[in-house]
Amino acid sequence: MQFLKTTWNHTRRSPYQAFAAVFIMMQTFFVVSLFTFVIFGSAKIINYFESLPQVTVFFKNEAKQEQIDGLKSQLEGTGKVAKIRFVSKQEALNIYRSQNKNDPLLLDLVTADILPSSLEISTVHIEDLNSVSDTLKNSDFVQEVIFPKDIISNLTSWTNAARKIGAALIVVLGLDSIFLMVIIIGIKISQRKEEIEIMRLLGATSWYVRWPFIFEGIFYSAGGAIVGWGVSCLILWYANPLLSSFLGNIPVLPVSPLFLLELLGAELLLAVILGMLSSYMAVLRYLK
Questions:
Q1: Range of the domain at 179
Q2: Do 179 and 111 share a structural domain?
Q3: Which residues contact 235 (CB under 8 A, 6 or more apart)?
Q4: For residue 109, what is the domain's CATH number?
Q5: What would you report as the CA-atom Rg of the chain, rounded to the nearest whole angstrom?
Q6: Which pLDDT score, from 0 to 100, does residue 71 have?
Q7: Cα 35 to chain center, whole Å?
Q8: Phi, psi of 251, rounded to the nearest 5 degrees
Q9: How far apart are alpha carbons 283 and 213 in whole angstroms?
Q10: pLDDT band at 29 (very low <50, low <70, confident <90, very high)
Q11: Which residues pair with 146 in a beta bridge?
Q12: How confident is the model at residue 4 (pLDDT cuts 50, 70, 90)?
C-alpha cells in the first residue's frame, strides 16, 4: 500500500510526464486493438466464404451418374472438402425457372435435357480451392469449373499482408514505447536524486526505492492500454453502421462484448509486462 501511495504522489507531482507516458502507451495499444479487429474481421470473412459453395463444376451431357459419384467420393477422400452437393438436371431446371419466373419466353425454351448437372463444393480451408479445382479439371467428363479465383486469392493475400503489417507495427511501437518509458522514468528518478539519497541514508533498501518507479511504469502502461482499447472500441462503434452496409450478409458485426473484454484483458496483461520491463530497465540504469 505504501508503494502505491508513493507511486500516486510521483504521478501527481509531474502530470505532464505522466500524460506523455500514457499517451505513448495509448498509441501502441490503439494499434494493437485496431489490427486485432482487422484480423478478427478478416478471419470471419474467410470463414464465411469457406462456408459457401466456392467451386461449381458442370458435367458434360454424356457424363454418367457412376462417374459423378466416383469423382465425388474421390474429392471427399482428400479431406479438403467440407461440403459437397449434387445438383441434378431437374433441380437445375427448377432453379432456372425460379430465377426467370417473370419471363415466360425463357421458360418455354429451356428443358432439363439441355441443362448440365453439377456439383457445388466447399473446402475446409480456402487455400485448398486451387488443388480441388485442378482435380476437377483433369476429369474427362467435366465441362467447366467455376470458382472466384481472383477474389479468393486477393482476400487471402490481403489478410496475410494485414497480419504481417500489424505485427511489424506492434513490434516497432512496442519497442518505441519501452525506450520512451525508460527515458521518462529515468527523468523522474533524476528529479528525485536528493529524496532517494535521504531514503538510503535512513536505511531504505534498493528494492524499497525501486518499487514505486516500477509500479509507476505499470500504471502508465495499464492506463494507456485502457485508453487505447476504449478509443478503438469507440471508433468501431461509430463505424458499425457503415461497415454493416458494406459487408452485407457477411456475419462480422456486431463484435461480441465478451471478445472485447477478452481483448482488454490480454492488452492489460501485455501492458503490465511492458510497464515492468521498461521501469526495471530504467531503475537498473539510473539507480545504482
A1: 2-48+153-286
A2: no
A3: 34
A4: 3.30.70.3040
A5: 30
A6: 80
A7: 6
A8: -80, 70
A9: 7
A10: confident
A11: 56
A12: low
